[in-house]
Amino acid sequence: MLSLQAILLCLASLLRRNFSLHDQVHHLRGQLAAATAKLQSCIIVMDSSLDMSGMFSYQSDDDSSVPSRSLKNFSLLLSLSALYVPMVILKYIDLLSKLRRPQDSEEVAINKRLAYRVDIFLSLHPYAKPLVLLVTTLLLIGLGGLALYGVTEDSLSDCLWLSWTFVADAGNHANVEGFGPKLVSVSISIGGMLIFAMMLGLVTDSISEKFDSLRKGRSEVIEQSHTLILGWSDKLGSLLNQISIANESLGGGTIVVMAERDKEEEMEADIAKMEFDLKGTAVICRSGSPLILADLKKVSVSKARAIVVLAVEGNADQSDARALRIVLSLTGVKEGLRGHIVVELSDLDNEVLVKLVGGDLVETVVAHDVIGRLMIQCARQPGLAQIWEDILGFENCEFYIKRWPQLVGMQFEDVLISFPDAVPCGVKMAAYGGKIILNPDDCYVMQEGDEVIVIAEDDDTYAPAPLPKVKEAVYIDIVRHERYPQKILLCGMRRDIDDMIVVLDAFLAPGSELWMFNDVLEIDRERKLIEGGLDFSRLENVTLVHREGNAVIRRHLESLPLESFDSILILADESVEDSAIQADSRSLATLLLIRDTQAKRLPYKEAFRGGSFSEGSWMGDMLQASDKSVIISEILDPRTKNLLAMSKISDYVLSNELVSMALAMVAEDRQINYVLEELFAEEGNELQIRQSDLYLREDEELNFFEVMLRARQRKEVVIGYRLEDAERAIINPPNKVSRRRWSRKDVFVAIAEKE
């Protein structure tokens, strides 16, 4: 500070000496003009009047130059004072405050307080930096113009303009002459360069902040009728794929994903690694917390047509508690919500609380419960997993609900064969507040406002047509297969295993045995079941058999009668369910050990010797063992699916993919959730695989419509079939009027009441 003051004093002294010499030159010019006038008057007498006027002219110029020089000197001093005086005053006040302040005082110095106030002003006001830059530029132009006015003969307006040119372009002072003008012009140019540097830094910072905001996903999303996904989990890839397929018929759509992750480095990079076609759908990622209303507004939450809340990995109760807080945040949006909320929960016990908070806006999908019920259904009916994959996903056929006024007054039996490209399976009754009924009576008459539930390829691929000509349904004997006691093994300990036991007790015949094999002590196991709400006294059909052991140790598995079980369910153990790869590795190891143990205990079948696998090969042994019992493995990672599909030794259930499909369907149409809830429940209707001899005789020739009418005698809705030599079932066959000869080994897929 002192060195700066010394420099300014030197500059002021030099300028003062320059101006003093300038005044002397003007004074000498005046005296020279007077002397010249007197000399001319003496030599040329006849021109005395003219010479006198010239003398007075010079004298008047000399007299007028005095106030002009005074004004220029004042402007120069004013410009120097404006730069120098504030620093002197601040230094004096700071020095005075130090002298008056006690030594032990904690009072902050005035220069620090002033710097603090400047920092606060610049940080709180968004336009503070440009405003300060503008004021500094104007001050430099003004003070520089005054200084130039003091050292040159130009007018004040010309000096102000010249000062602006020096600020805008530092090279403009190259043609300036004289020490004073050069010194002032160089000073203005240096100030202009500093201002330009500050302006460049300000613009650079603004551009960097904008790009940083875009990179981190902080900018606002201006969309409407989009699908909003809150959270991030391993189900996101399948969910994005299914919604993209659903949007394909609309020419694409928009999906907005908001999670507490970095937008570019994590979210967009992970989505780019997913190997599927978005089919015209745009995926927009934003970084933020769904618990903060400002972040929710940033993604246009009030204009979304559906909001999907994903469960986070980890503890189930903590995940559901977070989902509950998100629902509270969504219900607090001031503008309201246009769409519905689909919440993925981890524990069935928390479903009531979430629905209580969200009300009519919320639809819940309890992932763990859905997978558990699917495993039970698939264990009872091998091959059902593939049926569910076809129905839940948007890649094949799925559920749709639509109103058709031309069907009003028709009985459901006629509605059943009115759609060449769809399979009706239920009705949404307008007279009962939109109640959904699957598999209604044939005599039900369609009312005004009723909607038909169908299974079709897409919502625009089907429409009712005139009734086809079909044979009258011949009465056949209704065969009710007797249920026999079963022996089922549960490998692993699941969080909701108590609910699975209740469902199995409802499905199985009396006298069935349910073996539980895991590394939890029997006392602790019973305590967990009781804490989960299981009442042992209410189990009517099953008897629990407890065994302790590790499912990945061969000698522990060999202690079980593995060859005697009708179904074996390999569960993702709760101790490792947080890691999908670790859980799947454990399930896969258990599967191979069980199949190998079964193969060694069962006699080798002649049928396999003539096949592609020889006796003694592990694949041949696995295949002949798989023909004895059904093994259902709970798989979390989609990559494990390929291993099991290739080996064909397990009728697998792909947990995350099926849950993602269910979430996508409910997000597209919330009414589908009621259909899925009934198909998963212990009572009501469910998907079943039926033998062909229930509907037709050997080598009987019928078309699909006629098979559907035959099935109505059992009050069942046939939705597809699988031929004897086919690997996959065909849901919603394309040509329903074409007759074919059916075999007794063919099977049909039907929606029927639970037996």
What is the structure about, briefly put?
The protein has 755 residues and is α/β, with parallel strands linked by helices.
Walkthrough of the structure:
- This protein has about 750 residues and is of the alpha/beta class.
- It has 24 helices and 22 strands.
- The strands form five sheets. Strands 3-2-1-4-5-6 form a six-stranded parallel sheet, with helices on both faces. The protein has a six-stranded parallel sheet with strand order 13-12-11-14-15-16. The protein has a four-stranded antiparallel sheet with strand order 7-10-8-9.
- It starts with a helix and ends with a strand.
- About 35% of the residues are buried.
Question: Helices and strands in order, then pairings?
Answer:
Layout: H1 2-43, H2 48-100, H3 110-124, H4 128-151, H5 156-168, H6 179-215, E1 227-230, H7 236-247, E2 254-259, H8 263-273, E3 282-287, H9 293-298, E4 306-309, H10 316-331, E5 340-345, H11 351-358, E6 362-366, H12 367-380, H13 384-392, E7 398-403, H14 412-415, E8 422-429, E9 435-438, E10 451-456, E11 487-491, H15 497-507, E12 512-518, H16 522-531, E13 542-548, H17 554-557, E14 567-570, H18 580-601, H19 606-609, H20 618-626, E15 630-635, H21 638-647, E16 653-654, H22 655-668, H23 672-680, E17 685-691, E18 701-702, H24 704-711, E19 717-722, E20 730-731, E21 740-741, E22 747-753
Helix pairs in contact: 1-2, 2-4, 4-5, 4-6, 5-6, 7-22, 10-11, 12-15, 18-20
